[in-house]
Amino acid sequence: MYTYMLFQAAMSSRRVVVFPSSAELGPVLARLVCDRAQTALNAGRSQFTLGLSGGSLVSLLSKELPAQPGLDCSKWVVGFCDERVVPFDDPESTYGLYKNQLFSKINIPENSILAIDHTLPVEECAEDYARKLNQVSSNEDVPVFDVLLLGMGPDGHTCSLFPNHPLLQETQKTIAPISDSPKPPPCRVTMTLPVVNAARCVVFVSTGGSKAPVLKEILEGGEGPALPAARVAPSQGELLWLVDEPAAASLALQVERPGPGARL
């Protein structure tokens, strides 16, 4: 019953938007982030809060965000949806990748980038990072991000929330440690589902034909326990899936196919 309710909630609020390729998807994603930033600041909030994920999103955002006309990130605060507990110069460090490829190209203040302390043991690292993310919305029990950008693995995992892992049931912690990740490196910290589902806007980006089977299961429902990405259903916010044609190849549901220059 719980799985069915999650699936119905996600269906009621989500948009599935399909692009011919990531080349067409990237500029729309960048415009979406900038538009939501302007919306947040126009609403009187002092900052725009953005949660980043790694993988292909790093190169996509690093190419498209700096190309946005009049980009001003001076009131942005950036956190990470999950992070590997490795030094920042390690190729597995999501912060390190963004620092090298994106942050040097935009005018975001260094103290507005919330990074983990990778020198701490994983449990302490998670507690320390949870304290940092509480700066995002100090009046809330759970940090409320304006936008979270998520990826999805071929197994249906998102953040560092993996299928059948006990962290899927976590309701108290906002940031949780994981020391037995099925994907290396084993030690990570991750946002939990309460934080993800508190966001004002959650955007999944999924590309490539290898994602087609699991994307169909997540978006159209499948037997058995809901995969981690299927458990993302923002209670008050938007849920958008931005995918390319190869990833969407098996979908039977109704989707949007915007034209060039579209805004979402």
Automatic annotation (TrEMBL):
<keyword id="KW-0378">Hydrolase</keyword>
<dbReference type="GO" id="GO:0017057">
    <property type="term" value="F:6-phosphogluconolactonase activity"/>
</dbReference>
<dbReference type="InterPro" id="IPR039104">
    <property type="entry name" value="6PGL"/>
</dbReference>
<dbReference type="Pfam" id="PF01182">
    <property type="entry name" value="Glucosamine_iso"/>
</dbReference>
<comment type="function">
    <text>Hydrolysis of 6-phosphogluconolactone to 6-phosphogluconate.</text>
</comment>
<dbReference type="GO" id="GO:0005975">
    <property type="term" value="P:carbohydrate metabolic process"/>
</dbReference>
<comment type="pathway">
    <text>Carbohydrate degradation; pentose phosphate pathway; D-ribulose 5-phosphate from D-glucose 6-phosphate (oxidative stage): step 2/3.</text>
</comment>
<protein>
    <recommendedName>
        <fullName>6-phosphogluconolactonase</fullName>
        <ecNumber>3.1.1.31</ecNumber>
    </recommendedName>
</protein>
<dbReference type="InterPro" id="IPR005900">
    <property type="entry name" value="6-phosphogluconolactonase_DevB"/>
</dbReference>
<dbReference type="InterPro" id="IPR006148">
    <property type="entry name" value="Glc/Gal-6P_isomerase"/>
</dbReference>
<dbReference type="InterPro" id="IPR037171">
    <property type="entry name" value="NagB/RpiA_transferase-like"/>
</dbReference>
<comment type="similarity">
    <text>Belongs to the glucosamine/galactosamine-6-phosphate isomerase family. 6-phosphogluconolactonase subfamily.</text>
</comment>
<feature type="domain" description="Glucosamine/galactosamine-6-phosphate isomerase">
    <location>
        <begin position="22"/>
        <end position="241"/>
    </location>
</feature>
